Structure formats: structure tokens, C-alpha cells
Amino acid sequence: FMDTNNWVSDYGLMLALTNGLCLTSYVNGDSSTLVASVEEAMLHAQNHFEDKFVAYSVRVKLLVSRGCETEAIECVLNALKELGESFPQSSRDWSDLDDAKAAFFTTKLLLEGAGIDSILLCPIMADRRKILAMKLMNIVFLNLMLSSLPHTILISCRMISI
Fold first, then answer.
1. pTM for this one?
2. What is the C-alpha separation between 24 and 4, in angstroms, rounded?
3. Chain segment 126-158, per-residue pLDDT in tens
4. Are residues 76 and 60 in contact, defined by beta-carbon separation less than 8 angstroms?
5. Rg (CA), the chain
């Protein structure tokens, strides 16, 4: 209904329509349209992470719903890399606890001496990119608890440090 040139002349409209198509396709279980609309959004997104967020989140939800946890994790880790939140390459090994242990102890040191009151007095997160990163990590978190302890620890520690 609109050609590729419209991404240049009507970027905001095209992004909104494509994101709407991603969400509608996911809700309706139309995976072929979903995959195509996610690819379209990823191809044309200008502001990288912010504009790709709907496509990333819908892709992750689709992968999780299909039982493809490894691919969902890869998608989240690649998205987070755009924000400068890199994870060790070895963290992609589902059985490796070394990175998870290191993240746990780093987070423990970060929180050492902090009580509930001091944590509750921390400023509310205002960085939109970090908020979106938290939302993306949250999508996979519950599924990770059932399938991968190392990744559950890595993601939860990163959520705390952000």
C-alpha cells in the first residue's frame, strides 16, 4: 500500500503502521506477516533501538512462544548491544555458570551496604533507552527462570546495574 520511498517522506507514519502491523500480526497469530513486518521495521528504523523496540519485543515474544529460547536470548543480547550493554561471548553458552557467578558477585558488591530504604530513595529511571532495555529483558526473564539459570542470573544482575 506504500512503497519504500514513503519511509523517507513519511517516516513516522510508516514506522507507526509497521509497528501496528507487527503487534496485530502477533495477536492474530499471523506469523508470516509478523516476520515480514518485523524485518521491514528492522530494515528502515532510523533511531536504531528506540524505533526497533516494537519489532524486537514482538520478535522475542514470538520466539519464546515457539519455544526458541536460545534465539530469543540472542535477539535480546543483540538488541542490548545497540545500547552499549554487551554481554561476554561465553554467556551465550547455556551451561556456563562462570559469567553468571561473576555478574552475581559484581552486583553483590554494587548493593553492599544498601538497605531497602536507600534503594527506594534512588532516583526514578528517566533514560528512555534504559527503560526500553529493561522492558526487553523483562520479556525473556520469566522464561529464562524455567530454562537457563546462568542467563536468568546475567539478565537479573544487568537489570539491577542499569
1. 0.75
2. 21
3. 988 888 888 888 887 776 766 666 777 777 777
4. yes
5. 18
What gap in Å lies between CA 106 and CA 6, rounded to an integer? 47
**Closest Cα to residue 100, out of 152, 141, 159?**
152
* Predicted local confidence at residue 17, as pLDDT: 93
Question: 162 with 85: CB under 8 angstroms?
Answer: yes
Q: Which amino acid is at 108?
A: K
Grid coordinates belonging to 126: 528517566
Residues 6+ apart with CB under 8 A from 14: 2, 6, 7, 44
Q: What pLDDT is stored for residue 121 in this prediction? A: 87
Closest CA to 55 of 101, 7, 84, 20: 20
Among 33, 27, 82, 30, smallest CA distance to 56 is for: 82
